[in-house]
Amino acid sequence: MDANKENPVAESERETRAPGSGGQIRSFRDLVAWQRAMHTARLVYRRTEALPPRERFGLASQMNRAAVSVPSNIAEGYARGTTADFLRFLRIARGSLAELDTQAELAADVGLIAPDPDLSRSIAEADRVLQGLIRSLEHIPPSERKT
Length: 147
Fold this sequence. Notes:
147 residues; mainly alpha; 5 helices
């Protein structure tokens, strides 16, 4: 019970824990959700380099911002220190991930980039892990949440 009050991450939430961390979350960097989001952001930056120069301030910029927003919101929410804030920022991160998914699909649909199964898988995996983290935090009884 005290562990949940010190850290808003639920003890039962093993899937989003860093491998080899012994179940201990010491920083947002230990969250698998943040790690997956960072991987996705790196992929997006590599892919948007292939967009035409005319899109540098258009779709490329939007995709990069959405990609950066996901791990940034996970980190900020974690650092806020309360379960309610963490959940709010995780939901914002999930919204940014949906934006990114839409933008990547649009870029492929209009022929700016080739369809990218690796990016699609990375986005889907980041979303799956993020949703798992959200669900696990929602299941912490209110009396055990850090406020």
